[in-house]
Write a structure and sequence with these properties.
alpha+beta; 5 helices; 268 residues
């Protein structure tokens, strides 16, 4: 078996496509309509397109890629999207398409539309609440697609630590094939039996994790559910101090139910 430190000698470009889909949910108890609205406003301010852009730029740096273009948008009434076009190797200026901004955003170029090359990073946010319950949720979807030797898995811990996540779902897939110098096809160029292999111990211990993988298709899926739910971290506009025990118990039950429904993908 090839040693993992041995560099695979390829014929031509490594055109394996590695796609990481990173999805998080943050859950909050907000009893009144006003508190729900304030929570959505708070989330919208905390995770606006400017901050999300900085997170994606850091992801790009961690995986060793170069930013070619950034397009970002804040939405009304809430939500934001950012798209980064990236490359494994730095592209010389004379080859760079004139529509690319290299991550330099100016008032003149606020509405650039990204065209996608072989690699890209995107993020979309979805703040959500409903008048018939006392909960509000915040969802973030991040996709990192790369070709070549750069791997989106390197950014996993940074992504986990960039958000207050109660539930995380992660999908990773390697598509296509590349050939070595002898013409043999390689459908994956690194060892992996679980996404958890690339998550540090501290983050793993904070969550209950389960895997669902299809090894023969190089498809990997991991779900993570927060272990310890400190009630004060979930109260918006309220404090656990001096709250009646019956109220604490009721709120904890609501939060547990919401978390489990999202984690298992079913209505309980």
């Amino acid at each position: 078996m090839r040693n993992e430190n041995d560099k695979l000698r390829l014929y031509g470009f490594n055109n394996l496509t590695k796609v990481l889909s990173f999805n998080i949910y943050d859950i909050c108890y907000a009893k009144s309509k006003e508190d729900k609205e304030k929570y959505i406003e708070y989330i919208d301010e905390q995770y606006n397109s400017d901050r999300l852009t900085e997170i994606l730029k850091k992801v790009t740096e961690i995986i060793g890629a170069n930013v070619l273009n950034i397009a970002k948008q804040d939405y009304d009434p809430q939500g934001a999207s950012v798209t980064l076009l990236i490359s494994e190797e730095e592209v010389p200026l004379y080859l760079l398409d004139k529509s690319c901004n290299q991550g330099i955003l100016t008032p003149v170029r606020e509405n650039i539309v990204a065209h996608l090359d072989k690699s890209h990073v995107t993020v979309h946010t979805y703040p959500e609440s409903h008048p018939q319950n006392d909960l509000a949720t915040f969802r973030v979807d991040i996709d990192v697609a790369t070709c070549g030797q750069i791997s989106p898995l390197k950014a996993l811990n940074y992504l986990i630590e960039s958000f207050d996540s109660d539930v995380i779902t992660i999908d990773y897939r390697v598509r296509g094939f590349t050939r070595d110098i002898n013409g043999k096809k390689h459908f994956i160029d690194h060892r992996i039996n679980s996404i958890q292999n690339f998550i540090n111990k501290e983050n793993i211990e904070r969550y209950n994790c389960i895997d669902m993988n299809i090894y023969q298709s190089n498809i990997f899926h991991t779900k993570m559910r927060i272990n310890n739910m400190d009630l004060d971290n979930y109260l918006f506009g309220l404090s656990e101090e001096n709250m009646p025990e019956n109220d604490k118990k009721r709120i904890r039950a609501k939060l547990e139910e919401e978390t489990n429904e999202i984690f298992y993908g079913i209505n309980i």
